[in-house]
């Protein structure tokens, strides 16, 4: 049956409000009697607070002051392990750790007040790298600085080395990356003994905030209310941190007896909130004489920062993706998240996979070169086929043809002729050109048994006028949630797109459809919207008010009669796992994800060997993500992911000094602008996924995984030198290329 609404690029649901300026972001909101909040943070990376002194020559009586002692419930940001305090009490474990909160009616007085607070510390030695954490000379978390480990074991890796024609080793690393959403973190909180607390804010996961506030404030479920305001970007950066800032605002609001607005400026947001986990990955790979992979040992480590927060789940996704879209007869992956004295690293689009896939796809190019095969041909011989299994022994049941995907990407990018032309021209040119490939996949939905535990619930409601509202906790933050969920409901009910609206996201009135993360909204929540909408039709049909086929006018009339008679018309749908999904959490084996998106990306670059700068000249992004629900939004997701990937590869470097970000401004933390982005050519293959709405799978994170390795592989192709780390800045390329010249010079001399 052909679709009318799904697959069509309808206008964004909240688009008009955004472009006309009527959309309300949290900092647009003003409450009567509202105060402004600010945070006093640690200036040391590790130690003990000896004294907090408020000097006499300051009007402290005008300020509301909150410390850890004012917390009525538990002093934690409740998430997974509950190890992170909401306010440091005695121990300091990272710079920028919140210690004291201040509020005042005049927001301009706050920075002076924050600076006036005098804190004395007993400093302790701190650690700031994966290597220092592994040395364990300082134990800063648990007994061994280790938040979490995983092992995936398939086949028998110990047996592969003796039969190998080649064994190739390599070590790769990736840096931290700031999410750089346009709108910084911010909330407003209100508190009363009768009603409990209400928080309005910029966030991805209202029910995460809800859970954290219950623990912090010692309040029951119905005394905590969380409302999402228009959210200006998130990228994972508003997955866990809003629970912290919401807690701070509520503590201030309770003590003040007034609403409190707490908004970070860019510098505070960059210095204090989460970033992508830095990583180190070691590969050791055995290949036979025909260029077939025999097996591999992968060691994957991420730097979690000072508290556990989400590191275990970020590590999990990175570990499962570490073997990529290849058929490994044997593979063993060891993975570990370690503690350092930096602010906790957190969720960022891709969630561990961009790190491990950068290492894998760089390594694949190095293996190919070692064994004398072109990078595309080596991949072709090893890409997964239907019926084969991933590293976790998940059988690929979808009719995916990765060889075909590879062929199409090579053709679209004119790969083979470019390889030839560049090889001919480069020796004579100052500006050397290169082309690089990355093959990858990204699991959609929560990992393993995650979706079963989440147990998402979605509602659809019809009014007496026959208008329909979708009730979810899945948030819009620019990616298109509102639009695609309304499309799915309209399509299912035979309505116009304009007949369907989203219910405002308020934890007192919408069901918990889970967090807005993990490329799960379109595929998992979208499917539940579809089934809840079908439930509405069933109810009306059972009441004798609807026949087949569903007609819009008949539907509206049926709603009118039903609601007048019964008061309301609502339908709910709860998550049910697709059949044959089995996951063993102890062995880390089985169906890691309900479905994967698959992709081949090709980057073309120019490296200027006088300035050592790199430009990305062309980019082909080809992916299979099931049915495309909204072509413009889907292409936008890919273009945005590629742009972020270009930043991750070539520009965005967090400069740390004793665990503190020192370039926490957009003037010195350099992200790509439109000037630095090539034409991004986006192509989709559409194989409808039977358990997604109208065949859709997840798309949000996938495009973050491939650009960095494709770009660095292209730089290697251009320069003939290997690079192992990102970000890869001109000074890094300079160092390697001039080192090459020295070597050549020495050879000539010898
Ligand atoms: Mo996320 S990186 O918001 O799953």
From TrEMBL:
Superkingdom to which the source organism belongs: Bacteria
Domain named Aldehyde oxidase/xanthine dehydrogenase a/b hammerhead: residues: 20-125
Single GO MF annotation: iron ion binding
Protein name: CO/xanthine dehydrogenase Mo-binding subunit
Organism encoding this protein: Edaphobacter modestus
Upper classification of the organism: Bacteria, Pseudomonadati, Acidobacteriota, Terriglobia, Terriglobales
């Amino acid at each position: 049956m052909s679709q009318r609404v799904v697959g069509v690029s309808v206008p964004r649901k909240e688009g008009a409000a955004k472009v006309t300026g009527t959309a309300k972001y949290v900092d647009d909101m003003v409450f009567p009697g509202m105060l402004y909040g600010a945070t006093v943070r640690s200036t040391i990376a590790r130690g003990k607070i000896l004294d907090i002194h408020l000097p006499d020559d300051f009007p402290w009586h005008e300020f509301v002051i909150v410390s850890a002692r004012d917390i009525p419930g538990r002093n934690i940001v409740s998430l997974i392990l509950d190890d992170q305090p909401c306010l440091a009490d005695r121990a300091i474990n990272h710079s920028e750790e919140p210690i004291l909160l201040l509020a005042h009616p005049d927001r301009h007085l706050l920075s002076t007040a924050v600076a006036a607070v005098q804190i004395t510390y007993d400093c302790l030695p701190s650690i700031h790298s994966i290597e220092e954490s592994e040395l364990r000379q300082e134990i800063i978390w648990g007994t061994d600085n280790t938040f979490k480990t995983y092992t995936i074991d398939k086949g028998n890796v110990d047996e592969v080395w003796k039969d190998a024609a080649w064994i190739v080793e390599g070590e790769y690393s990736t840096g931290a990356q700031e999410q750089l959403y346009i709108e910084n973190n911010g909330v407003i909180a209100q508190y009363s003994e009768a009603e409990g607390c209400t928080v309005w804010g910029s966030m991805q996961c209202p029910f995460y905030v809800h859970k954290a506030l219950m623990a912090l404030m010692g309040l029951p479920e119905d005394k905590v209310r969380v409302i999402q305001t228009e959210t200006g970007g998130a990228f994972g950066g508003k997955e866990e941190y809003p629970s912290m800032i919401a807690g701070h605002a509520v503590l201030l609001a309770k003590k003040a007896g007034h609403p409190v607005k707490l908004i970070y400026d860019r510098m505070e947001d960059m210095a204090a909130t989460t970033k992508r986990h830095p990583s180190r990955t070691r590969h050791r790979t055995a290949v036979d004489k025909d260029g077939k992979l025999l097996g591999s040992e992968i060691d994957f480590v991420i730097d979690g920062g000072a508290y556990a927060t989400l590191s275990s789940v970020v590590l999990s996704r990175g570990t499962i993706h570490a073997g990529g879209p290849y058929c490994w007869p044997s593979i063993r992956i060891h993975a570990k998240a370690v503690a350092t004295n930096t602010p906790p690293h957190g969720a960022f689009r891709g969630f561990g996979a961009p790190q491990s896939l950068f290492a894998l796809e760089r390594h694949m190019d190095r293996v190919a070169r070692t064994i004398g095969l072109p990078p595309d041909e080596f991949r072709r011989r090893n890409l997964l086929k239907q019926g084969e299994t991933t590293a976790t022994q998940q059988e690929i049941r979808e009719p995916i043809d990765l060889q075909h995907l590879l062929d199409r990407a090579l053709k679209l990018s004119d790969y083979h002729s470019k390889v030839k032309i560049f090889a001919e021209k480069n020796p004579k040119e100052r500006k050397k050109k290169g082309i690089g490939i990355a093959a990858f996949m990204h699991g959609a939905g929560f990992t393993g048994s995650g979706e079963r535990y989440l147990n998402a619930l979605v509602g659809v409601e019809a009014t007496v006028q026959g208008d329909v509202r979708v009730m979810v906790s899945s948030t819009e933050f620019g990616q298109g949630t509102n639009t695609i969920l309304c499309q799915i409901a309209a399509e299912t009910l035979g309505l116009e797109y304009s007949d369907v609206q989203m219910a405002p996201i308020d934890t007192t009135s919408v069901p918990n459809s889970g967090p807005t993360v993990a490329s799960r909204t379109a595929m998992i929540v979208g499917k539940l919207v579809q089934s809840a909408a079908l439930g509405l039709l069933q109810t009306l049909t059972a009441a004798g008010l609807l026949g087949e086929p569903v007609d819009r006018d008949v539907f509206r009339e049926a709603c009118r009669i039903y609601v007048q008679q019964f008061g309301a018309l609502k339908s709910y749908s709860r998550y049910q796992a697709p059949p044959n999904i089995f996951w063993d959490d102890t062995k880390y084996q089985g169906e890691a994800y309900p479905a994967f998106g698959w992709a081949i990306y090709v980057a073309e670059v120019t490296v200027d060997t006088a300035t050592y700068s790199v430009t990305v000249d062309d980019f082909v992004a080809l992916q299979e993500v099931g049915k495309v629900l909204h072509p413009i939004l889907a292409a936008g997701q890919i273009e945005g992911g590629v742009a972020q990937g270009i930043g991750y590869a070539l520009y965005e470097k967090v400069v740390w000094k004793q665990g503190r970000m020192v370039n926490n401004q957009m003037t010195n933390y350099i992200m790509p602008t439109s000037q630095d982005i090539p034409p991004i050519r986006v192509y989709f293959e559409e194989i409808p996924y039977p358990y997604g709405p109208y065949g859709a799978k997840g798309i949000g994170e996938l495009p973050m995984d491939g650009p960095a390795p494709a770009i660095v592989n292209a730089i290697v192709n251009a320069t003939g030198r290997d690079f192992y780390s990102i970000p890869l800045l001109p000074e890094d390329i300079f160092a390697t290329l001039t080192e090459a010249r020295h070597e050549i010079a020495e050879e000539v001399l010898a």
